[in-house]
Design a protein that fits this description.
single chain, alpha/beta, Leucine-rich repeat, LRR (right-handed beta-alpha superhelix), eleven-stranded parallel sheet, two-stranded antiparallel sheet, 13 strands, 12% strand
């Protein structure tokens, strides 16, 4: 490998040439990068220039700053990842990024979460990915690209054969682009994980869920699918479960924050009885209640030996359902992670989970409750563990054991 360039020196020179004032935060990141051992490693390095979660306020990256940075990175092949989340990039910055993606053949990871990129910026970036053959992981989370912007990414998925992970959560996607993405994924053979959380849907017919289910019948490469906040009801769950009887690739299914009840949990029970692939199921913030918890525990206790993690946080479950789930953990040696906080713990449920942990059936970092005693009575407290606990932000200094706060990533390496 050739001698790597001095990133900070090149940045200072580029600012002088372009007449652009230096961004102190960006300059600091490049100075620290110059000191990194990874600069000379074949594995490459990621520049973390995210504008959030700093102990002091930072000057966030603008479109003009990005233009200078792109010129610095043009010959820095050792930079394989770029985290520009939580900055103030707009469609003008997206134009710079699109040009950079067309010219660059080393960048594998690009994080643009929660900037101000709109529909025209999405068109430029998606268009650049028609030809880019290096990018593997892309995060557009929180940019208001809308339905039309989502359509550009759906078209890209019909052409691009390199991208493996795409996050379009909180992007205000609409009905038409979700259907278009589902159709594209029936043919796409490279994408392994996609996040489509919180679209803007105005129909109660669940057309998008029906198309996603049809896609799952034909797609054999998708490993991770996030459909949180889709207004999904029991009919939609039934469609997905029927499709997953025929699917042998999906390992992680996120159905959190929907309108699934105990009837929907019945379909999930039948799925868990027959499916031999699914490892992670997120039902956080649904309303499956005790009956739904009992249905799931029946499948996990007697039949399923594949599922490793289940989240039923805030699902209106009381003591009966929680105790049933504890029995499933006790009897199923594969079922190792369960998240239950936000439900109605009675004395029996508190005792059941306390015994699970004391007897070693459930490791403390594999659940979100911790037992303690008050006047001889067992109670439970909340732990900061869960599926995608640090999806929107991550602590600068780790306060929980490795993997405990993101068990999904720990179990399914494909989603890292």
């Amino acid at each position: 490998m050739s001698v790597p360039p001095d990133l900070h020196l090149h940045y200072v020179q580029a600012c002088q040439e372009l007449g652009q004032p230096q961004n102190p935060f960006l300059a600091h990141v490049l100075q620290e990068a110059d000191k990194s051992d990874k600069i000379t490693c074949t594995e490459g390095m990621t520049l973390k220039i995210a504008g959030n979660n700093h102990p002091v306020p930072v000057q966030r990256v603008t479109d003009d700053d990005l233009g200078v940075l792109a010129s610095v990175l043009r010959h820095a092949a050792f930079v394989t990842g770029l985290d520009l989340g939580f900055n103030v990039l707009t469609d003008a910055g997206a134009k710079t990024l699109a040009r950079f993606l067309q010219e660059n053949n080393s960048l594998q990871y690009l994080n643009l979460r929660f900037n101000d990129i709109g529909t025209s910026g999405a068109e430029l970036i998606a268009g650049a990915l028609h030809r880019n053959e290096s990018l593997v992981h892309m995060k557009m989370t929180g940019n208001k690209i809308g339905n039309q912007g989502g359509m550009f990414f759906a078209s890209m998925l019909q052409i691009n054969s390199t991208l493996e992970k795409l996050d379009l959560g909180d992007c205000e996607l609409g009905l038409k682009c979700l259907i278009a993405i589902a159709i594209a994924l029936t043919q796409n053979k490279s994408l392994r994980a996609i996040n489509l959380n919180r679209p803007l849907l105005y129909s109660q017919e669940e057309e998008t869920t029906v198309h996603m289910a049809q896609m799952l019948k034909n797609n054999s490469s998708l490993v991770e699918l996030h459909l949180s906040k889709h207004e999904m009801k029991n009919f939609g769950v039934e469609q997905l479960c029927e499709a997953l009887h025929e699917n042998s690739s999906l390992r992680y299914l996120d159905l959190s924050c929907n309108k699934i009840t105990c009837d929907g949990a019945q379909f999930l029970r039948e799925l868990l009885i027959h499916n031999q692939t699914l490892e992670i199921l997120d039902l956080n913030a649904n309303r499956i209640e005790d009956a739904g918890a009992v249905y799931l525990s029946q499948a996990l206790s007697l039949h399923n030996r594949t599922l490793r993690a289940l989240s039923v946080v805030s699902c209106n479950i009381s003591g009966k359902g929680l105790t049933a789930l504890s029995h499933a953990v006790r009897s199923n040696v594969v079922f190792s992670h369960i998240y239950v906080w936000g439900n109605k713990f009675d004395k029996g449920a508190c005792k059941a989970f306390s015994e699970l942990i004391e007897m070693g059936h459930l490791k403390p970092n594999c659940t979100d409750v911790a037992p303690y005693k008050v006047d001889g009575e067992v109670q439970v407290a909340q732990l900061s563990h869960g599926l995608q606990q640090h999806y929107y932000w991550a602590p600068r200094h780790r306060v929980v054991p490795e993997g405990a706060a993101n068990a999904s990533l720990d179990i399914a390496a494909d989603s890292e």
